[in-house]
From TrEMBL:
Record GO terms (molecular function): purine nucleobase transmembrane transporter activity
Protein known as: NCS2 family permease
Taxonomic source organism: Merdimmobilis hominis
Membrane topology qualifier: Multi-pass membrane protein
UniProtKB keywords: Cell membrane, Membrane, Transmembrane, Transmembrane helix, Transport
Keyword Transmembrane helix: yes
Length: 456
């Protein structure tokens, strides 16, 4: 163990690493409740998504630990799953049966591209050529988008014919309990409770059970109000039903890719772009927190870490889940002293153990996972503090459009598209064409073609 992970060299030990791994798992296990709900909305088999999420997280995290020797865990990324479900499946391709198969195909292609970019060390270079304001604006916009989805899932906001959105009925159990859940998570975070988001989900669900038993929450499947009490008949109910994985694994639609090249390319690019900055930013941020960067501020074994992430994305697509990416929650384990891949291996083991708890995760309602979406959205929105709202107007308007177009047009891809188009156009019209890197011209052309196809 010492020889393989170099524990002494990193100033750690087995006990510390295992504790850190458990902490990381608790911090990010909420994805096991959130992902099946979100991808289930897109028409996928929820239990199959649960298994795919747990298995792909375990595999990708194991590779990160053994191959790159970093205390970084991976799982289906927040924001990327929202783009998968609500922008593609329930948005652009809403009239297409099994649109989720197109989305999985796009993730597969994205993962393969990332593997190639990682092998040629192009990924690190690419991330430096996109304007900082756009990077921060896109992340902040995704935060607002995720928050909006959480508010909708709990009926805190609802559709309105006059104003498009309005406040929901705060006297109903789902709305009230979701708001209580947000407060509970905030309180636990204040007291630095490990796994606060996960415990917040579970606490909200348990409060929902009491509401059901007391008659406040009324079961009515016709309006989406399902029983919150798990029906467990025996120990056999906890055995994973791998047959459901057959409903999601290797379900690709290459015909759409061939017949709709431009539209498919835009979908892939949005996945690629968001995952690119999310991964690089997470790796640098977590490594910096654990003092794992070298004297020049570079990340040793960066190629291995990025390749691990890319392989995880391909594995996730094959199993049937949205883009697998590095989790910033890994910083929770690093804060506990995790410094090597043994932390990641421990987290991977717990993701494997989680597959036996589907009977629990299957009854957790949308209003219980909504607080997680809202709080994660808060953290992503905080990137707006890094944005500049004065100076170069290309940076200002580009970043601003990236932020607002995601929630207001209900599409992550639209936010990226309008932000980048505006940035290039303002640069050109103000005579600053020398500031535009060739890669931005390529991106501009791609999105300009997309606009043309939407208009024609």
């Amino acid at each position: 163990m010492e020889k393989f992970f170099k524990l002494n060299e990193h100033g750690t030990n087995t006990k510390t690493e295992v504790t850190a791994g458990i902490t990381t798992f608790l911090a990010m296990a909420y994805i096991l409740a959130v992902n099946p709900t979100m991808l289930g909305d897109a028409g996928m088999n929820a239990q199959g998504v649960f298994l795919a999420t747990a298995l792909s997280a375990a595999l990708a995290t194991l590779i990160m630990g053994l191959f790159a020797n970093y205390p970084i865990a991976l799982a289906s990324g927040m924001g990327l799953n929202a783009y998968f479900a609500y922008t593609i499946c329930l948005g652009e391709l809403k009239d297409m049966p099994n649109a989720w198969q197109v989305a999985l195909t796009a993730i597969l292609v994205e993962g393969i591209i990332f593997i190639l970019l990682s092998l040629f060390k192009f990924r690190e270079t690419l991330v430096n050529k996109i304007p900082a304001n756009l990077k921060y604006g896109i992340t902040a916009g995704i935060g607002l988008f995720i928050t909006f989805i959480g508010l909708q899932n709990a009926d805190i906001v609802k559709a309105d014919a006059s104003t498009l959105v309005a406040l929901g009925d705060i006297g109903t159990a789902p709305v009230a309990l979701a708001l209580i859940g947000v407060v509970l998570i905030a309180i636990m975070m204040h007291f630095k409770v490990k796994g606060a988001i996960l415990w917040g989900i579970l606490a909200t669900w348990i409060l929902g059970i009491f509401a059901q038993l007391g008659g406040w929450y009324v079961v009515n499947p016709e309006v989406g109000m399902y029983s919150l009490i798990p029906e467990i008949k025996g120990i056999g109910d906890f055995l994973p039903n791998f047959g459901t994985l057959g409903e999601t694994a290797f379900k690709f639609d290459f015909n759409f890719m061939i017949n709709n090249v431009l539209q498919f390319a835009v979908i892939v690019f949005a996945f690629l772009f968001v995952d690119l900055f999310d991964t690089v930013g997470t790796l640098i941020g977590v490594a910096n927190k654990g003092n794992l960067l070298d004297k020049d501020g570079a990340l040793p074994r960066a190629g291995r870490a990025l390749l691990s992430d890319a392989i995880g994305t391909v594995a996730g697509a094959c199993l049937g889940t949205s883009t697998v990416t590095s989790y910033v929650e890994s910083s929770a384990g690093v804060a506990e002293g995790g410094r090597t891949g043994l932390t990641a291996v421990t987290t991977a083991v717990f993701f494997l153990l989680a597959i036996f708890f589907w009977p629990i995760f299957s009854v957790i309602p949308g209003f219980a996972t909504a607080p997680a979406l809202i709080v994660v959205g808060l953290f992503m929105l905080s990137n707006v503090l890094k944005m500049k709202f004065e100076g170069d107007m290309a940076d200002v308007i580009g970043g601003f459009l990236a932020v607002i177009m995601m929630p207001f047009s209900y599409s992550i891809a639209n936010g990226i598209m309008f932000g980048m188009l505006a940035w290039v156009l303002v640069k050109l019209c103000t005579g600053k064409w020398r500031d535009i890197h060739p890669i931005m011209y390529i991106v501009f052309a791609l999105f300009a073609l997309r606009i043309i196809t939407l208009v024609i």
